[in-house]
Amino acid sequence: MQLGPEFQQLIFYSNTYGGQNKSCMVISMFTYVLQVKTTLRTIEHKSLVPGHAHLECDSDHSIVERKSKKSPFPIHHPRDWYQLVRMCGGVTPMDQEDFFDFRLLSAKKGVLQKKRNNENGDLFEYRKIKCLQLEQNFGKVNYKNSLNDLEPFLSINFKRISKHVQRQCYSKNSLNDLEPFLSINFKRISKHVNIPLDNVILRLYQ
Fold this sequence. Notes:
Elements: E1 9-14, H1 18-21, H2 24-36, E2 42-47, H3 56-69, H4 78-88, E3 131-134, E4 140-144, E5 154-157, H5 163-167, H6 186-190, H7 199-205
Parallel strand pairs: 1-2
Antiparallel strand pairs: 2-3, 3-4, 4-5
């Protein structure tokens, strides 16, 4: 992550899609980034109110969708989508090593533990959260169920307390300590391509 020491706070905005933007994976990712970037003090993640806001990336998705309907070449596998998106504007190429499996942090013997109740004993529900706030206090997450600045934060601590975790140390020097996704689910891809997967696709993306 390319962040200079002058950056002490990050604020993310996203839609309210639960499985993608409101999950333990997001909390695990933010927790790890704070451990890697020690100069970073706070990360906030705010969910937009449905029907009252518009993300810039939504326009990009619309452009790609319209372009795909008039594509000058057939789209048979992921590389074709890559070429199509390049025709729509700027693209930041990403390699397999750029994707990380943050489930390792909240796995059975990970440093974070999934919990259902906050520090007050109340039920913690991802779907109701509108604002997440993480600081350097490892494992502690502050959250709100609204975007009202006057509403106080609630807190929940995901830090796992056990002898095993105390011996388990994740390096703070590099994100390479997290396993990248080493393979792609070809069954899932086959639902979105126009022809059956063949050996050429397997050689390119296996």
